[in-house]
Design a protein that fits this description.
The protein is mainly β. The chain has no helices and ten strands. The strands form two sheets. It has a six-stranded antiparallel beta sheet with strand order 1-2-3-10-5-8, with no helix packed on it. Strands 4-9-6-7 form a four-stranded antiparallel beta sheet, with no helix packed on it. The protein starts with 18 loop residues before the first strand and ends with a strand.
C-alpha cells in the first residue's frame, strides 16, 4: 500500500451509498474505480425479472447472499448461491435471474 493510502471499508448491508445501475436496473455501490473497478450489486426492483446485456470488460464475481441463475452466451444456466465465484470474458452475452436477497461483489478488469 502506498504511503498515505487508506483502506476502503464498506459493508454490503449498509443502506447508504447505493446508486442506480443504468445497465441492469439494480443498484450498485462502488468500492474502487481505477485502475480496476470493484463494486457491490443488488437487484432492487429487478428481482425475478430477466436482466440481459453484453459485458464490456472481464468480470469476476462472488455471490454474497441470495440466489439465482446466470446464462452465458445462451449456455446451460450457472446456479448462483453464496460462495459461488464466476469469471466471465469480455463480450459475453449474459442473462440473469436473481431473487430479492441477491448481492454480489464484482471486479471489472
Amino acid at each position: 500500500m502506498s504511503e498515505g493510502a487508506r483502506p476502503v471499508v464498506t459493508h454490503a448491508e449498509v443502506g447508504d451509498g447505493w446508486e442506480p445501475d443504468d445497465e441492469t436496473g439494480g443498484l450498485v455501490r462502488m468500492v474502487r474505480e481505477a485502475p480496476v473497478e470493484v463494486g457491490l450489486w443488488k437487484p432492487n426492483g429487478v428481482a425475478g425479472k430477466k436482466i440481459e446485456y453484453e459485458l464490456d470488460a472481464e468480470e469476476t464475481l462472488v455471490v454474497l447472499r441470495g440466489s439465482g441463475e446466470l446464462r452465458v452466451d445462451e449456455a446451460e444456466p450457472i446456479e448462483l448461491r453464496p460462495g459461488v465465484v464466476v469469471s466471465l470474458s469480455r463480450g459475453s452475452r449474459l442473462s440473469w435471474l436473481v431473487d430479492d436477497e441477491f448481492c454480489e461483489l464484482w471486479v471489472y478488469s
